[in-house]
């Protein structure tokens, strides 16, 4: 039975110029009202923890949770704490039923997203799932970036990313999906190392890498220690010294000064760079560059 006092959100407030997809990232608050909508919504918990009230159910949520909410399902998120230091950030992708029906009819029955179509046809039906390796987070990151940048062709990119998301959700619903998933810890560490190595010249935080790997900071610290034997700070120093050694050893980069290489390796403080480099190699950067290896 429909409860009174529930606010109805309409797609016409979000869909403009023929584009029936809208993506945003919001910090949930205690003063936001419970609501339902005349469009479909997929919500992803970007960071933080809290509760999701769906109809008469209360679900504890944290980073990595995803919800598929058909038309007419009432819900609201609440953070665990009113503190601004512990926000519950949600990324929402909303789209109209016609687009959903179109996308799920593109594929033949053996690949079709018909479990989602069945949910749409059942009043009050909704779906919850949780990512295993940050796979939903990466898609939502791309969806949000495309929607915000609005570069040429972004409309088509949004539709393509939405279809990828729906297929990813369909795969996660398959029996035995967990059994065929990659070994989570080595895969997460591989992604973390790739992220670090692509950004050594920047300021890198544990929070950034955890977000990219799709896990919490404490879990990432444990995984790094288990897989590499190093703490996050020690691993970051090692990667930066390894990068500087590679640059110093490259004869095609002889025009770069030691200060240039230190900066490109993410250690712009030259005194600190010299100290860390000598601790790791037993020689100064200049000696390393000049000597045989």
UniProtKB/TrEMBL annotation:
Keywords: DNA-binding, Transcription, Transcription regulation. Pfam families: AraC_binding, HTH_18. One of its GO terms (molecular function) is sequence-specific DNA binding. Coiled coil: none annotated. Residues 190-291 form the HTH araC/xylS-type domain. The keyword DNA-binding applies. This is AraC family transcriptional regulator. It comes from Cohnella phaseoli.
């Amino acid at each position: 039975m429909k409860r009174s006092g529930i606010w109805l959100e309409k797609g016409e407030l979000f869909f403009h110029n023929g584009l029936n997809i809208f993506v945003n990232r919001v910090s949930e608050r205690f003063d936001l009202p419970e609501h339902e909508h005349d469009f479909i919504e997929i919500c992803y918990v970007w960071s933080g923890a809290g509760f999701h009230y769906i109809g008469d159910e209360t679900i504890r949520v944290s980073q990595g949770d995803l919800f598929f909410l058909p038309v007419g399902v009432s819900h609201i998120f609440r953070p665990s704490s009113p503190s601004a230091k512990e926000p519950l950030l949600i990324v929402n992708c909303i789209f109209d039923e016609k687009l959903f029906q179109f996308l799920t009819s593109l594929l033949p029955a053996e690949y079709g997203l018909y479990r989602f179509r069945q949910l749409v046809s059942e009043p009050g039906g909704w779906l919850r799932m949780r990512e295993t390796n940050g796979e939903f987070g990466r898609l939502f990151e791309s969806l949000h970036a495309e929607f915000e940048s609005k570069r040429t062709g972004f409309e088509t990119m949004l539709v393509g990313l939405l279809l990828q998301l729906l297929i990813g959700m369909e795969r996660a619903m398959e029996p035995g999906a967990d059994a065929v998933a990659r070994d989570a810890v080595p895969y997460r560490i591989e992604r973390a190392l790739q992220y670090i190595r692509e950004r050594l010249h920047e300021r890198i935080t544990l929070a950034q890498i955890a977000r990219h790997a799709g896990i919490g900071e404490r879990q990432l610290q444990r995984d790094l220690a288990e897989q590499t034997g190093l703490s996050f700070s020690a691993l970051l120093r090692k990667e930066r010294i390894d990068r500087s050694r590679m640059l110093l050893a490259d004869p095609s980069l002889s025009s770069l000064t030691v200060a240039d290489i230190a900066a490109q390796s993410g250690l712009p403080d030259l005194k600190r760079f010299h100290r860390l480099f000598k601790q790791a190699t037993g020689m100064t950067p200049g000696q390393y560059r000049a000597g045989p290896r």
